[in-house]
Amino acid sequence: MKTLFSLAAAAALSASLAVSMAFSAQAHPKSVTVGDLKIDLPWTRATPGKAAAGGGFLKITNEGKEADRLVGASSPRAKRTEIHEMSVKDGIMVMRQVKGGLEVPAGGVLELKPGSYHVMFMGLPAPFKEGEMIPVTLTFEKAGSVEVELTVEKPGAKDPANAMSMGHDMPAKDMPAKDMPAKDMPAKDMAKDGKPMKMDHGNHDMKQ
């Protein structure tokens, strides 16, 4: 009887661990390490059916003693892929291509995120659907070509799902205002008039 109980308990534990591991693998985008470069949290947003463009985001950590440079990107899910920057000028968001790429400083971090630098996907033959993976090849000056997969989050997402659980479990009261959920953000860091910003993104049908 004890033997049967032990076997049943072991089977239940094994199944529980399998489910936990599967959930963990699905919840966190896969990190990629090439030489001194580590690429974390690659993600993008689901796009409307007729959207012509989308944005890709990730974090690149350079653990080496020499700087590298992100000079380009490509994806079979877009007719054209570029590195772009979004900035605010006179209350209007402006998007432009970054010529010459972006430096990944030695011992430093380059972060591509909403409202800043990002991978720009243009000419989408099909929409990005929540839950799927988008293959992207990043091109570095020294590290060469690096393949990553971006997890597609819900439309309008500000961060990849469960990003806070990856070593960033910081209480809201100790979190920098720029990373704080809107409900916990001090009034001084909110939009002055509470109105949405205008955006000048040319031919790019995408919201940041």
Topology:
Layout: H1 2-27, E1 32-34, E2 37-45, E3 53-62, E4 68-74, E5 80-89, E6 92-97, E7 102-104, E8 109-112, E9 117-122, E10 133-140, E11 144-153, E12 198-200
Parallel strand pairs: 2-11, 6-12
Antiparallel strand pairs: 1-2, 2-3, 3-8, 3-9, 4-7, 4-10, 5-6, 5-9, 10-11
Protein name: Copper(I)-binding protein
Organism: Breoghania corrubedonensis
Region (Disordered): 156-208
Describe, in plain words, how this protein is organized in 3D.
The chain has 208 residues and is mainly β. It has one domain: PCu(A)C copper chaperone (Immunoglobulin-like). The chain contains one helix and twelve strands, in the order αββββββββββββ. The chain has one helix at 2-27; strands spanning 32-34, 37-45, 53-62, 68-74, 80-89, 92-97, 102-104, 109-112, 117-122, 133-140, 144-153, 198-200. Strands 1, 2, 3, 4, 5, 6, 7, 8, 9, 10, 11 and 12 form a twelve-stranded mixed sheet that branches. The chain is globular and about 45 Å long. The chain starts with a helix and ends in an 8-residue tail after the last strand. Residues 7-27 and 165-203 have low confidence and may be disordered. It comes from Breoghania corrubedonensis. Keywords: Signal. It holds the Pfam family PCuAC.
